[in-house]
Amino acid sequence: AEHPPGPDTEGQVLVASNRGPVSFTLGEDGSLTARRGGGGLVTGLSALRPGTGTWICAALGEGDRAAVARFGSRLDPADTGGQAVRMLDIPAGTFEAAYNGVANSVLWFIHHLLYQTPFEPVFDAAFEAQWSEYAAYNAAFADALTEDAAPGSAVLVQDYHLSLVPGLLRERRPDLRVGHFSHTPWAPPELFRVLPDAIARRVLLGILGADRAAFLTRRWARAFAACCADVLGAEMSEADGLTVTHGGRTTRLGVHGLGADAEFLRERAFRPDVDERLAALRAQVGDRRTIVRVDRTELSKNIVRGLLAYRRLLTDRPQWRGRVTHVAFAYPSRQDLAVYREYTAEVSRVAEEINAAFGTEGWTPVVLHVKDDFARSLAAYRMADVALVNPIRDGMNLVAKEVPVVSERGCALVLSREAGAAAELGEDALLVNPYDIAGTAEALHRALSMDADERDRRTKRLSAAATALPPQTWFLEQLAALRG
Ligand code: G6P
C-alpha cells in the first residue's frame, strides 16, 4: 500500500542514482533550501511520478545530510518537485571515496577519454581502500532497494556510480526486473583496460547482473559489448538485438536516445523571469550576433578549447570583431576535485585574456557567467544565433537538443562529432572535431555566415529530431523493454 502502482507503469518502479531530483543547501541561519539537481540524468528521470515509484539517491553534502536528519530519509514530495524520494545518508568517508574518488576521478575520466588532462591513475593501496568504499556505497543502495522493492518490481539503476548494484540485486533478489542505464559514453576496450583486471571485471559483471543494460547511443552500447568480449571473453551477438552472454546468462543491451522535453521547454522558456533575463542579456550585447554555450564547468565539455576557437575566429576573421559576442555560461561542478577547480579558474583566465586582447570600450568579446541560473540559460537559448557544443566526448548532451527547441532566431548548431547527440543531429548541425581549434573556428565562421533561411530550415529539422524521444516516453520505453 505504501507504493500504489502508477497508471502508466503497471507495477512498482524503483529508480536508483547517485544524484536525485533535489539537493538541499544549508543556510547560515540553519534554513534548508531545495534545488533541482542538474545534468541529463535528472532531466530524463523527472518522468517518475509519485504513485509510480520511489527514487533512491544519495545525500550529497552537508545540506542533504541536514535534510535527512531533520525530515528523515523519506522526503515529502512537496519538497522534491513532486517525487517520492528516499535519500540515503551514506557515511561521509564512503561517499567521498565512492563519488569523488572512484566514480568521478577514475570511471568518468575513462569513459570520457580524458587521458590528456591530468589523469594519472595510481592503482595502489589508497585506491584499493577507495574501491572498497565504492563497493560499500553500492551495497548501501542494493540494501535499500532490497528492502523497498515489492516482489517482481522493476528497478532502474543509473550510471557509473552504481555499476555493482545490478549484480548485487541478482544475488539477493532474483525476482526483480533490473535495468541499468549509462548516461555517459562507454570507453573503448583499450582504455577500459587501464583499470586493474579484477576491477574491470567487477564493473562489467556488475552491470551484466541486469536483465537489460541500456545506453544513449549504439556507439556506447557496442563499446560496452566490446569491453565484455575483451575483458571477460563474453560473447556478443546481434542476432536478436544486441546481447552479451557470459557464464550462461544473457543480458540484453538497449539504446534509448534521451530527447528534449519540448512541451516543458516551450512553456518554461517564455515565462516573465526568462523575458527579464533576455532583456538584460540583450542590453549587455546590443544587436551583435551571439555565440552561446551553456555547460557545467566540466573537463569533458571542452570549454577552454571552445574559447580558443573563438579567439582564433577573431584573429583569422577580423570582420567579426565588434560584431559578435560569445555568451558563455559555465556553471560550477564537482568543485571538491582539484582538477575541476583548476579548470574553472582556467576558463575565467582564458576568457579574460580574450577580453584584454580584443575588447574595446563598447565591446566585451566574451560575456562569461558562472552562477547557475536556469532562467538565464533559457534566455540565452532564445537569443542564440550560434550554439557551440564541443565536448571531447559526451553521453548525449541535452543543450544541443534544447537550443533548437526554444531558439527564436533560428540558431546554427556547431556540434562535436563525439557527442552522442551527433548521431541524431549530425545532418543539420555543423560537426567538428573537438580537438581541432582551427576547424572549430572555421565552423563558427560558417555558422555566423549562414543565411537566415537556411538557419531556419535547419533549426526546424534539428528541433524535430531533438524532441523525438521526450523524457516521459524515454522512461516508459525502457520500462516496457525491461518487462517485455
Ligand atoms: C552527468 C552524469 C550524471 C551526473 C551529472 C552531474 O550527466 O551522467 O550521473 O549526475 O553529470 O554531475 P554530478 O557529479 O554533479 O552529479
Automatic annotation (TrEMBL):
Disordered: annotated segments: 1-13
One Pfam entry name: Glyco_transf_20
EC number assigned by the record: 2.4.1.15
The keyword Ribonucleoprotein is assigned to this record: no
Signal sequence region: none
GO molecular-function term, one example from the UniProt record: alpha,alpha-trehalose-phosphate synthase (UDP-forming) activity
Top-level taxon of origin: Bacteria
Sorted UniProt keywords: Glycosyltransferase, Transferase
Family statement drawn from the similarity comment of this UniProt entry: Belongs to the glycosyltransferase 20 family.
Name of the protein in its database record: Trehalose-6-phosphate synthase
Organism: Streptomyces litchfieldiae
